[in-house]
Amino acid sequence: MPTNFIRGKTPLIVLASSFAPWPNASGGTQRIHSLGQWLKNYARVVMLLPTLSILPSDRIPDYDRIISCTQSNSLFSRIFRRLYTYYLHFFDLPPKWDTSINKFYSPIESLRYKRILNELKPRAVICEYLWQVPNLYKACQSLKIPLIIDTIDIISRRQLKEVELGLTEKVNISLEEEIAIWQLASVLVAIQPEEASEIAKLSPSSVVVCAPQAFTPVEPSSIIKKRKFVLMVASGARPNVQGTELFLRSQWHDIVVEHPDVELHVCGNIVESLSTDILNLPNTNFHGYVEDVSVFYRQATVVLNPVIYGSGLKIKSIEALRYGKCLISTPVGVEGIPLAHELLPVAEADQLGSLLVSLLDNTKKIEEYEQNATYMFNKNYTPDACYHELINIIMDY
């Protein structure tokens, strides 16, 4: 970690997000929180949000400053914004601009960002996901500030899969539009190696770096003998809900028949989205959002991730490795995790139940997978391992 910063001053980095990364209830919020707090080892970090949810001060993560771009909603302000937006859309679009992404651009929002960035004069702006990039681009370009996109996943691919599964009627962004937005950035950050390669192929003119999700290490906990504690931790995102309901409806009954003493514990906002029949299954406990999920990880015999589609890195899978747990997952749940298929129990969604049944009586095998999990985490997912390349790029500006 550097002690003397460039030009003798601690640089300032702006972390711009479409939503506040608290409470820490999903993979996306965990990603933003983790990166923001690690950046504080190297720079002052300002969180920039379109709006700001008011929470008790002890619940808001420690940033040097949090700025909300909330705009006035008076009738005069709305009329002025509408007229000025029409003017800017026709006469003041930025260069390098693909008109297909006009729908993501708000000139008024862009002007507010320019005013804020001109005051802050940051070393770089990191935009979490890509939704605010069109609004940030012109401000960053005119002030000569590098704009970095933390892509987190390929959003258009995930949305297209949801359309195919009948979970939504249409996508909010096409792959072509997503690529056009990527090309506005100085650097693209991918969350896992395979996705970094794919983004580089889709946008060959872009600088792409890989920065997986990181966690600070914790002391791993071994299984509690003679207890069959199955843990699932997930947000209410569609891939999580779809995979969980499919698994529980089709396989949980058979698992309980084979292991009458098995207990399933489900933590996270996913509970709010599960159907009533799922919530009434035997041997299940649904806890909802938990402030300190480590209590559940430390009790778990195995951790289960039945997700059947999605992109990006499955952050809850990394969290299971962090606690040294035997992670039973679909191939989708371990995408981007090196050697996952060799070192962890991985099976297609319709085979997860039989894999779980065979493992619950095999303490020795579970302990072997636990050792593998700890090895994989320490090698790949500590902050130093994940963020060093991104930090070096930022400090070079």
Structure description:
This protein is of the alpha/beta class and 397 residues long. A seven-stranded parallel beta sheet has the order 3-2-1-4-5-6-7, sandwiched between helices. The chain has a five-stranded parallel beta sheet with strand order 10-9-8-11-12, with helices on both faces. Helices cover 42% and strands 13% of the residues. Helix 3 crosses helix 4, helix 8 packs across helix 13 and helix 11 packs across helix 14.
Summarize the structure.
This protein has 397 residues and is α/β, with parallel strands linked by helices. The protein has two domains: 6-213 and 383-396, Glycogen Phosphorylase B (Rossmann fold); 229-380, Rossmann fold (3-Layer(aba) Sandwich), CATH 3.40.50. It has helices spanning 27-39, 75-91, 107-120, 133-143, 155-164, 175-182, 193-202, 238-258, 276-279, 294-299, 315-322, 340-343, 352-360, 363-380, 383-396, and strands at residues 12-16, 44-49, 65-68, 124-128, 147-150, 187-190, 208-210, 229-233, 263-267, 284-288, 302-305, 327-329.
Number of strands: 12
Mean pLDDT over the full residue set: 87
Q: Structural class of the secondary structure composition?
A: alpha/beta
CATH architecture of the largest domain: 3-Layer(aba) Sandwich
Strand content: 5-15%
Unreliable runs = 1-8
Topology:
Elements: E1 12-16, H1 27-39, E2 44-49, E3 65-68, H2 75-91, H3 107-120, E4 124-128, H4 133-143, E5 147-150, H5 155-164, H6 175-182, E6 187-190, H7 193-202, E7 208-210, E8 229-233, H8 238-258, E9 263-267, H9 276-279, E10 284-288, H10 294-299, E11 302-305, H11 315-322, E12 327-329, H12 340-343, H13 352-360, H14 363-380, H15 383-396
Parallel strand pairs: 1-2, 1-4, 2-3, 4-5, 5-6, 6-7, 8-9, 8-11, 9-10, 11-12
Helix pairs in contact: 3-4, 8-13, 11-14
